[in-house]
Design goal:
single chain; alpha/beta; Rossmann fold; five-stranded parallel beta sheet; 10 helices; hydrolase; HAD-SF_hydro_IIA; HAD-like_sf
């Protein structure tokens, strides 16, 4: 692990953070997260938060971060509820959508004027998402809209296989639902609206006058967080507090490794600043 872990020695101009597995796990901040965010704010360095989780809207994330001691503006948060709604409104405003999702996404689509339906004969787009109420009835509607009526196509909010939980557990995520629809219809998902899609980066940097190459994406997943950074020329930091392990990183060829690998999130703050502030690993 010591051969893999390396930390930045200078500050970047802006930071984009994944949340689940990076800033917090479950209902607990990860070690060093609070003081790290506070130090970036103190230095007036822009901070943005991203999540592939569509089961909460930005306001709910603001509430959660506030409970955890990290007051945040709604404008600093973007997730797949935002990107999916924006993409449909921009590209298919008149489409009739069947959203296999939980209420935050459905509510956002309705508020944006997107028509929702469960009638396969009138569905234009099936949106697969993280849905803990997914059942055979919903699969049948998607099947009929895509395969039988041959009018709908499939998009997904995010490509994650599972959502990590404390204690090493997890729940099947959107990719499992997408795979079920693809398997029975023989179709292929046409659009991904979560990381590593560049639409997430666009959402994160909106309103910031900072070049992509001067930002860093910080996350715990190589296939989404880090891949988005690699695809867009953005610096990246993989924190080993969520999905990715040191062995996972070591297995990559050097061209596909993150810029930095951190054993804890506050290693983003250069070691020289740790010394100035009197920080230690024992502090939170």
């Amino acid at each position: 692990m010591n051969d893999i872990v390396n930390a930045p020695t200078t500050f970047q101009q802006a930071y984009v953070f994944d949340m689940d597995g990076t800033i917090y796990l479950g209902d607990h901040l990860l070690p060093g997260a609070k003081r790290m965010i506070e130090e970036l704010h103190r230095r007036q360095i822009p901070v943005r938060f991203l999540s592939n989780n569509p089961t909460k809207d930005p306001h709910q994330y603001v509430e959660k971060l506030a409970r955890l001691g990290l007051p945040t503006e709604v404008s600093d948060i973007s997730n797949t509820v935002v990107t999916t709604t924006n993409w449909l409104r921009a590209n298919h405003p008149d489409a009739t959508v069947f959203a296999i999702s939980e209420e935050p996404l459905k509510r956002s689509l309705r508020e944006a004027g997107i028509r929702l339906s469960e009638d396969p004969a009138e569905i234009d787009i099936v949106v697969a998402s993280y849905d803990r109420q997914f059942d055979y009835r919903k699969l049948q509607i998607a099947f009929d809209a895509i395969w039988f009526h041959k009018r709908a196509f499939l998009v997904q909010t995010n490509p994650d296989r599972f959502c990590p939980f404390p204690g090493g557990r997890g729940e099947p995520d959107c990719a499992a639902i997408t795979a079920a629809i693809e398997a029975c219809t023989g179709t292929t998902c046409q659009v991904n609206l979560g990381k590593p899609s560049p639409v997430m980066l666009t959402a994160a940097l909106e309103g910031l006058d900072v070049a992509v190459e001067d930002c860093v994406m910080v996350g715990d997943r190589l296939q989404t967080d880090i891949q988005m950074a690699l695809d867009t020329g953005m610096g990246s930091a993989c924190v080993l507090t969520g999905e990715a392990t040191a062995d996972d990183v070591a297995a990559l060829d050097r061209a596909h490794r993150p810029t930095w690998v951190l054993d804890r999130i506050d290693r983003l703050i250069p070691a020289s600043v740790w010394d100035e502030l009197g920080w230690s690993d024992d502090d939170q």
